[in-house]
Design goal:
The complex is a heterodimer.
Chain A (H helix, E strand, L loop, with lengths): L4 E9 L2 E2 L14 H11 L4 E6 L5 H13 L6 E4 L5 H9 L4 E4 L1 H5 L3 H9 L4 E10 L2 E6 L4 E6 H10 L4 E6 L11 H10 L4 E4 L5 H10 L5 E4 L1 H4 L5 H10 L8
Helix pairs in contact in A: 1-2, 8-10
Chain B lengths: L1 E4 L7 H9 L4 E4 L2 H6 L2 E4 L5 H10 L3 H9 L4 E4 L1 H4 L4 E2 L5 E2 L7 E4 L12 E6 L1 E2 L14 E6 L1 E4 L5 E6 L3 E8 L2 E4 L7 H12 L3
Parallel strand pairs in B: 1-2, 1-3, 3-4, 4-14, 5-7
Antiparallel strand pairs in B: 5-6, 7-11, 8-10, 9-12, 12-13, 13-14
The chains are: A alpha/beta, B alpha/beta.
């Protein structure tokens, strides 16, 4: 049976990852490569590297890191952040990324998803949407969640899937950072509308939140989180074990 | 030395790196001379079948590869590279495969329960069928990473593992010196590296 995926997201700025706590067996927690390797050994099913624009040197450092990670860590690697053109896809895929996640780039250029899917295949194109309720309607936000695009989220995501996006990362701005659980209502609405894998993001605060997510919404394929992993609040190996104990298919390493 | 056949499709960075990780020299190449020097060959592949099939034909490596395989050189096809090993493929029309293993490549929708997502993306467990030397370092039930909408059918005699996804999908095949994995060993963590290591020991 296919397992539910657990995906840590690493924000990378100037070649360093948002700093976490010191884990046993990891020399440098702000080294994205060391952290990626650590998560992989703990049972992470996939990794997301998110590029944060900081300086002109940042991009070169980022691709160096990708290359080093892909030569040491043998699980799927998704890259997001600053993906605006098919050339951006090409750049990160050559460095070892398996999938590329587009967010604002797809809002600015609606044909980006289609062009990338034609060239690299749908399995390579992930649509990542930051979504927030505005007057009871799910709206897509751009620029890291700062700007309301006015786009209705479920329709917009469905359109991206029709254009060839092979996976959806749904990040709820409403639950992000609150640590009281994933946005089940928003996830349900998107899962009903698309038939590609949906990755839940935003709101996980503890192991139980993942159990609730997969029990309430069996159509959700994966759970993504960042700080709770980096700060050691949830250990991926523990999380996997609890999922399995609750009858949720999980890959135990 | 292992030669990874470069016929212009897909990203071969991870694949080459995975051989480095197990201490095996691997070269990404489209040169017949290097292919002939290799102890074993890898046929990778992603994307649409007909594009990949055409690219392989036009790369000038196909004849060399088929010649080496006939001489007994081990060949491992991965994902779409595995699908090319069969007689026929039914992705967007009917396409001729390499005919190295009897069988055809069909949509997984014909086999799996309705309502399941297509493609199958993620980690799924191996269920062993015929014994395989590729699995000497791993166990039944180990997880490997899949991304596919098509799979090989009508090849039970040569199937070494399947995986359960609302029905059984062909995960790996083997016929003499020809091997194929529908999953990506280079993306399947330690389990995948152990499968590649076993392949490098095929004589």
């Amino acid at each position: 049976m296919i397992t539910k995926r657990i995906i840590p997201c690493l924000d990378v700025r100037d070649g360093r990852v948002v700093k976490g706590i010191n884990f046993e067996g990891i020399r440098d927690v702000s080294s994205p490569v060391d952290l990626a390797d650590y998560y992989s050994r703990c049972g992470a099913d996939e990794l997301v590297f998110y590029y944060i624009t900081a300086s002109s040197d940042g991009r070169k450092l980022f691709t160096d890191i990708l290359r080093e990670t892909a030569s040491r860590v043998f699980i799927p690697l998704t890259v997001g952040g600053g993906i605006n053109t098919v050339d951006d896809f090409d750049r990160v895929l050559k460095c070892g990324a398996d999938k590329v996640s587009v967010n604002s780039g797809a809002i600015r250029n609606p044909s980006l998803v289609k062009e990338a899917a034609l060239r690299y295949g749908s399995q390579c194109v992930v649509i990542s949407a930051d979504v927030k309720r505005v007057d009871g309607v799910f709206r897509v936000f751009a620029k890291g969640g700062r700007e309301n695009t006015g786009l209705e989220a479920v329709k917009w995501i469905s359109d991206c899937v029709k254009n060839g996006a092979g996976e959806v990362v749904l990040n709820s701005i409403d639950t992000d950072g609150v640590k009281k659980g994933f946005d089940l209502e928003m996830l349900d609405a998107v899962c009903e509308a698309v038939n590609v894998p949906v990755i839940a993001s935003g709101g996980a605060g503890c192991i139980e939140d993942f159990v609730k997510l997969f029990k309430a919404l069996p159509k959700v394929d994966a759970g993504l989180a960042a700080s709770i992993f980096h700060f050691g609040e949830v250990r991926i190996s523990d999380l996997k074990k609890v999922l399995a104990d609750n009858g949720i298919p999980a890959r135990i390493v | 030395m292992t030669a990874i056949i470069d016929y212009g499709v897909g990203n071969l960075f991870s694949l080459r790196s995975s051989f480095s990780a197990i201490g095996e020299e691997a070269v990404v190449t489209s040169e017949s001379r290097i292919l002939r020097e290799a102890d074993r060959l890898i046929l990778p592949g992603v994307g649409a079948f007909c594009d990949a099939r055409r690219a392989f034909s036009e790369s000038g490596t196909e004849e060399t590869v088929l010649d080496l395989v006939r001489q007994g050189r081990p060949l491992l096809g991965i994902c779409l590279g595995m699908q090319m090993l069969f007689d026929r493929d039914f992705e967007d029309g009917i396409h001729e495969g390499l005919g190295l293993i009897p069988g055809e490549v069909r949509p997984i929708s014909e086999t799996i329960e309705k309502g399941l997502k297509i493609p199958q993306i993620g980690w799924n467990a191996l269920i062993f069928r015929n014994p395989s030397v590729l699995y000497k370092y791993i166990n039944e039930g180990d997880y490997v990473y899949f991304v596919h909408s098509y799979h090989a059918a009508g090849c039970a005699e040569h199937t070494t593992a399947v995986t359960g996804y609302g029905g059984y999908l062909t995960a790996s095949v083997e016929r003499g010196n020809v091997f194929g994995t529908q999953f990506h060993p280079e993306k399947s963590g330690t389990v995948g590296l152990n499968i590649l290591k076993a392949f490098t020991e095929v004589r």
